[in-house]
Amino acid sequence: MLRFIASLHDITMVVFMNLKEKIEKLKTREDEFGKLQLDVIRVLTIFNGVLWMSEIIPDIMKIHGHVMDYLPTEKMLEKVLEKLEDDGIINVEVRERGMMFSKGVYKDKLVKLLNLREARTLLTSDNVYINYLSRKMKMLRRALQQNDE
Description:
Helix content is about 65%, strand content about 15%. The chain is an alpha+beta fold and about 150 residues long. Helix 2 (about 30-45) crosses helix 3. It is globular and about 50 Å long.
């Protein structure tokens, strides 16, 4: 039993190191592919580790305040998701999803960050991540103040 627990700990450390190394490398990249990989990790971290693929690009635009130095495309996103899945950072599953205001369903990809806790820890020094969370907190404080009046 102790060996099993030790091996789980080792696996967790490998995933953590893999994620840490990945984020550190991505922060230094200037190409669109690298920027999109980091942005995918950011939005998954912000939104509790799970998003539908169809929501990722709009959410990336939100975290950047709709001001970006590159334009992510669906095709590029597909390649980024494949790369992050191959690297053991995310899991991608095709699932059925309900349509808004309709009884219909459609297929979308559910994207899950495999180690949310570690991603949160690693992104605490990331300006895009911090700025987005700060903007959201300011909005919440203003809304609460208006509600109190």
